[in-house]
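Researcher: Next entry in the queue.
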Amino acid sequence: MSKTYCPYPFNGISLQPNNMVLPCGQYMDSAPFQKIIPINEVRNSDYMKDMRSRMLNNQHGIGCQCPAEEEAGIVSMRQKSIEKFGIDYSDDLKIVEIFFDNVCNLKCRSCGSNNSHLWFEEEKELYGITLSPTKYQKNTLYKNLDLSKLEMVDLYGGEPMLSVDVENFLTTLCENNLIKNIELSMSTNCTVIPKDNVLKALLSARTLKLALSIDAYGELNNIIRSGSDFDEIINVMKFFKNLYWQRPEGTTTILVHSAVSVYNVNLLPELDDFVISNFPEFSSSTQVVQFPLFLSIKNTPSDFKNNVKQLLTHDRYSSIVKYMEQDGEDLFGHFVNFHTKLNEIRQEDLGNKNQLLSTAITGYKQTPSVEESKIFFKKIINDMKTNMLV
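Model: Structure for this entry, 390 residues:
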């Protein structure tokens, strides 16, 4: 397999909720891209041509995240797409990611206002600055898509099960008899039962992959993914379990997908054991949180890492441990200030929901001042606004 080629810059695009067109949803350097530029104009731009050329000459795109994951042994988005599509140097549009809007019913601790409008006011209070320039963002460019050669469609939000635009888009695919050609993927926070038109598409797609974003078992998930109720999540999981058996055998993948951060890394086995025992039809997948930096597991103290490592002995966690052990900077003090202030804003308390983390927070002796952390937080947000998707 090529170490630099990726199908996305050749055959795919990612439509962001702020009407920006990017090579993929994980691309971290948005500086060369502008908002509300026609899709084909972006795909045929000099920058995209140069990116394709670089990839064919053993160089990664400047904003690619996949190399860091691959170095840690994590199967990256790039590698997965090559397995699915092979090597294709044409410019046929086969893969589309669509982030329809940032409307969400949760405000996850590793998220921000670019993906959840509920974060907007809290960012002002926490950072003194917001990641998204406006509380609400909405993608409209998807209406100009050439659907004729699409093979894979990935849908995101916000929470896509709440989006009228997601419903309209899937209805269009069904009405034009295109849904039967589509490998449909959707990420959902597993708190919402799909509406009838969405359900019809989920049942009719050629293949279906649902990623249920759940970060921990029980009450800890309710803290990490604020606004969620784990009992309700279980009911929605049961709905999707029934959906799994309604579709043709071998055409459906349902993943419990966890964003791995300081908050949950040590308790991943607890969630996995719950899924294996109660939802054997489902698989598990993970993605390490890289931003904000203070939530990254590689930017934690060495004693915390050692304690976590002793709990993640199963082979399925080897890539996570390897990523955690990469060179990082101890930013745990800034995490403590973030955690403390967010608890105050939300009137939440970690308590004994993650005892190892609570002990680490209590025992940490190098916490910077609140003012130092505010300066650090603002720098992170400004860096993300400059280099990321906002």
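Model: The two ends are 33 Å apart (CA to CA).
Researcher: Noted, moving on.
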